[in-house]
Amino acid sequence: MIIFCKFGFCFVIILFSFLFYIDVTLITISAFIGGFIAVFAPGGLGVREGVMVSMLTPHVGLAAAFSISILHRIISILFDLILGLFSLVYNKLDRLKG
Fold it and tell me: What is the pLDDT of residue 26?
């Protein structure tokens, strides 16, 4: 559930920067599930972006849809790295206390 919120939040940021208001949650969850079902692609790499581009193209055009999907992937990776780093620091501090 938290991961869907994270993906939706990343996607909202990207779409607001392009000034397009679309059903963000539906597109994000569809792309995430498409990437999850594609077991041949590690982390849904390429599949999630393809689903997102195909759903966005009628609304924003191919170039913008492609840019949005790539930015979404980059922001998602950065968000995961930041949360992972936060968890490592928290775990280290917790071990030092007790």
Answer: 82
Q: Which of 83, 91, 75, 78 is nearest to 12 (CA)?
A: 75
**Model pTM?**
0.70
Residues 6+ apart with CB under 8 A from 34: 44, 47, 48, 50, 51
The rounded distance, in Å, linking the Cα atoms of 69 and 66 is 5
At which residue do the structure tokens 């597109």 appear?
27
Copy the structure tokens of residue 43.
Answer: 């982390």
pLDDT in tens, 45-55: 899 999 999 99
Residue identified by tokens 């991961």 is 3
Confidence of residue 81 (pLDDT cuts 50, 70, 90): very high
Write phi, then psi, for 23 (nearest 5 degrees).
-70, 85
Alpha-carbon distance of 49 to 32, in angstroms, equals 9
